[in-house]
Specification:
Helix content: 55-70%
Mean pLDDT: 85
Shape: elongated
Oligomer: single chain
Low-confidence stretches: none
Strand order of the largest sheet: 1-2
Distance between the termini: 107 Å
Number of strands: 2
Strand content: under 5%
Length: 179
């Protein structure tokens, strides 16, 4: 006696063992999938939607065929199908990539120091991190972090320690009279 065993996909009564009736298992209409395809901009999401369209219309019979046409591994197709069956079309057509996180993101006093006092050079910032948080960063590594987060080491023009502010103001007044 042959027994049907449901796959890992939740609430999908059309998916048994390795034979999946994709036109029935995909709940959206072809017109709805085509409309979503036209509105997508990300190449990854366009590819995902196109795969669903192929399976729904019967252009390909299996996910393995679709992955072969796309030049992807069959495991990728399996993962996509699990994503569709567990989260539906909304989860399937959304990207959840979060870029690499840095330990500097969790240092509020570092960001406070950047806002208030700032750093003149990247070397100064590296030294401050080593002294206050025992974090060792290279200059290029910290420079990459600053670039990624749009942080700039800005400093004012240097002033000579012997400069007299009163003389400077008097000089400017004299210059305006002569012109």
């Amino acid at each position: 006696m042959l027994r049907l065993i449901p796959t890992l996909a939740k609430n999908c009564y059309y998916c048994y063992m390795r034979v999946i009736n994709y036109p029935v298992a995909i709940h959206e209409r072809v017109s709805e999938l085509q409309e979503r395809y036209r509105n997508l901009r990300s190449p990854k999401l366009l590819e995902r939607c196109e795969i669903l369209l192929w399976l729904k219309t019967g252009k390909v019979k299996t996910m393995k065929e679709a992955m072969s046409l796309k030049g992807r591994h069959t495991n990728h197709g399996r993962d996509l199908w699990k994503l569709y069956t567990s989260e539906g079309i909304a989860g399937y057509l959304s990207l959840k990539y979060r870029g690499p996180q840095s330990p500097l993101d969790n240092l509020p006093d570092f960001h406070e120091h950047l806002r208030t006092i700032g750093f003149s050079t990247l070397q100064e910032a590296c030294t401050w991190l080593k002294e206050h948080h025992n974090l060792s960063y290279s200059i290029s590594g910290l420079g990459n972090y600053f670039t990624r987060n749009k942080i700039r080491c800005k400093t004012g023009r240097p002033n000579h320690p012997k400069r007299d502010e009163n003389e400077r103001v008097a000089y400017k007044k004299n210059m305006r009279k002569n012109t």
